[in-house]
Amino acid sequence: MFDPKPKVSPLDPVWDRITEEATRAVADEPLMGGLIHATILHHGSFDCALAYRLAMKLASPEMSEQILREIADEAYDAKPDLTAAARADLVAVYERDPACHRFMQPLLYFKGFQAVQAYRLGHWLYTEGRTDLAYFVQMRVSEIFGVDIHPGARIGRGIMIDHAHSIVIGETAVVGDNVSMLHSVTLGGTGKEDDDRHPKIGDHVLIGAGAKVLGNIRVGACSRIAAGSVVLSDVPPCKTVAGVPAKIVGEAGCTQPSLSMNQILQTTPRS
């Protein structure tokens, strides 16, 4: 029977921009055409492209890219929030990382973005009770990207992990929305306890390079943790902490530190 209602493709400005950038990139550098066509231009949607990219990165002799692609496609069909979060993460990287000049860069090249999307896939498997597959994804993310996020951790959207080397996030950790962190950050426990033992990071928090946040503590929204700090107790909202162990050294300095990415500590000169 004739359907009088035309089928309209959903608007996806992120995907439209990625494909436009990819087309220009192939024209500028034909030697990249194979990779860019296979990863972006061959696909009809962001979801399909992301599933393909993760499958190709995580595949090994133990698990083929075809199986991983089917798992990702199943996840994205069952839970569209996964790719909605991925879009928010991609825009976050573009807006906060001065080294990111195009939307297609995180999808193609940035291991922080790719690792977070692979974690999201593993977390979906974990919540579905498919724990062995979830742990396999965690293992491959650790091996390939140097990022170790337990699939039980809960992470919001708009996440930017810059450089993303040696990131560790434990099983009961919670990370809010629009959080930024740099390399070598640990959200870990303090011993062998087997309960709720990892940090709870509020929205809009900025965590500097090498910071360690340990134990079942809360880091308030819109706070800053200075590079190299070891945080062992709760951090109030909108504060800056620094040191070993970390102490409050001032206000956060702005309403959303994770967006400004300002990591300079303002000190009061001595009289």
From TrEMBL:
Source superkingdom: Bacteria
Protein's pathway: Amino-acid biosynthesis; L-cysteine biosynthesis; L-cysteine from L-serine: step 1/2
PROSITE patterns cross-referenced by the UniProt entry: HEXAPEP_TRANSFERASES
Domain Serine acetyltransferase N-terminal residues, every copy: 14-118
Keywords, sorted A to Z: Acyltransferase, Amino-acid biosynthesis, Repeat, Transferase
One BP annotation, GO: cysteine biosynthetic process from serine
EC numbers for this chain: 2.3.1.30
Keyword Transferase in record: yes
Transmembrane segments: none
Top EC class for this record: transferase
One Gene Ontology cellular component: cytoplasm
Sample GO molecular function, one term: serine O-acetyltransferase activity
Catalyzed reactions: L-serine + acetyl-CoA = O-acetyl-L-serine + CoA
Family: Belongs to the transferase hexapeptide repeat family.
Protein name: Serine acetyltransferase
